[in-house]
Amino acid sequence: MKEDRDLHDIAMNENYQTYLKENLEKYEDKWVVIIDKKIVASGDSLKELLGKVRKEHGTKTPFVAKVPKKTFMTLSASWSNALFPICSRKS
User: How is the chain split into domains, by residue range?
Assistant: First the structure.
């Protein structure tokens, strides 16, 4: 069981590294699914996407992420509980 978990962790890390290295500009604001270090699917509906991927790739564990827009906003809280918007631009 531990060996299976280790292999799963290695695969997830490799797929995450693929996500970080890929040029994802064409997938902006879409869900992407990465299996075996390849983007195997993308789309707007996560539910539909996962159904399609499960049919095509069986029990392989996918890495799934929503690619952010180039401009996005995050909120940062201070000790006084005030929220400060921080606008960011993806490089």
Answer: 2-89
For the chain, what is the HEC assignment? CHHHHHHHHHHHHHHHHHHHHCCCHHHCCCEEEEECCEEEEEECCHHHHHHHHHHHHCCCCCEEEECCCCEEEEEEECCCCCEEEEEEECC
| pLDDT tens column, 12-68 | 889 889 998 999 999 999 999 999 999 999 999 999 999 999 999 988 888 998 998
pTM, rounded to two decimals: 0.70
Structure tokens that stand for 47 in this block: 């539910």
Please tell me the number of Cα atoms within 13 Å of 65 on its side-chain side. Answer: 18
